[in-house]
Structures are given as C-alpha cells and as structure tokens.
Design goal:
Blueprint: E1 12-19, E2 24-30, E3 37-43, E4 50-52, E5 58-59, H1 63-73, H2 81-98, E6 102-104, H3 105-119, H4 121-131, H5 137-149, H6 153-160, H7 167-174
Parallel strand pairs: 4-6
Antiparallel strand pairs: 1-2, 2-3, 4-5
Helix pairs in contact: 1-2, 1-4, 2-3, 3-4, 4-5
Length: about 180
C-alpha cells in the first residue's frame, strides 16, 4: 500500500487486529521510507442486492443513503457513533443474508425501524413518521402507544438467551 505521507510505493504491516466484531481487519502500517505510521481498515466487498423501490424500479443499494437515513433520525440525539455503525452493519447483514437479488425498500425500512427502536425511541418515531407517512398527530400517538407496548431491547436480548444455540455452536462447545 502506498504511504499517504511521502507517497512511497510500499509500506509494511506492523500489527493486525479484528475490528467491528470480526467483519473488518485493522492494520497498523509503517512506511520504511519516511517512518510515519498509519492505520488501514480492510473489509470484504460483497455484492449487495438491488433495492426495489415502491415504484417497482430497482436501483443499486447505496450504503451512504442508508447511513444518511440513520443519521437524520438520530440527529442531535445521544446515540454513539459506534452504535450507529453497528445498526447500519446489522441492516446490511440482513440484506446479504436475504439471498435475494432484489429486496423491497419497505423491508429495508422495517429493518431500519427495528434497529432504531433499540437505539433511541425519539429517532424511531422520527423515522417512522417519514417511513409510514404520518398524516396527523394521531398517527404519532398511535406509534408511540405501539412503541410503549413492545418489550424493551434489554428484555428482548435476555429472551434470546433462552433459545438453543445453532448446531455449529453446540458442536464447538463439545470440543
């Protein structure tokens, strides 16, 4: 990799670590020419399905557009950047796992709402007001009432622990 400081054609890796729950590799590099150090992040580049808009027209998935949607919803809210990055990654993971060539934008919006519900309730209602095209104050009240009836994120996480782990995890525990 080229040095960003002196533009030398090659640098050397001095440390590698997993990052973002193992989805990325952080590499610490050093330039043998100028001696400066810097970090790079390596991530698998996987093909994403097309997004099927409500008009029926497919368009390429745009991670920046997804991120902007999250950022608009959490604007001026106490949501850490790491939590936001994790939510974006979760939606992208669901997209890849769908195995479909085209995913309806409504489904992606529902996944975003699931993530926002766990991050921040105000951000969730902000996003829901646009996603569901609220027409009046009653629509806000109904959504807030629905949100209050749902179990908390902590309760849902604890409930998941009651489910048996997948087979590969069971087998690895026996080893």
């Amino acid at each position: 990799m080229q040095c960003p400081f002196c533009k030398a054609p090659d640098t050397r890796v001095i440390d590698s670590r997993l990052y973002e729950e193992g989805t990325q590799v952080r590499r610490r590099r050093e330039c043998p020419h100028c001696g400066n150090r810097f970090s790079t992040f390596e991530k698998a580049q996987l093909s994403m399905p097309f997004v099927l808009k409500s008009s029926g027209k497919p368009q390429p998935f745009d991670e920046d557009k997804l991120r902007r949607g999250f950022e608009s919803a959490v604007y001026k809210r106490p949501v850490p950047q790491e939590a936001l990055d994790h939510a974006v990654e979760n939606v992208m993971r669901k997209l890849r796992a769908s195995g479909e060539r085209e995913v309806p934008s409504r489904r992606i919006g529902a996944w975003v709402m699931e993530e926002l519900r766990d991050l921040d309730h105000v951000a969730y209602v902000r996003f829901a007001s646009i996603y569901r095209s609220f027409q009046d104050v009653n629509a806000f009240r109904e959504e807030i009432d629905r949100l209050e009836k749902l179990p908390s994120a902590e309760l849902r996480r604890n409930q998941l622990l009651l489910i048996d782990p997948p087979e590969e995890k069971k087998n690895s525990k026996k080893s």
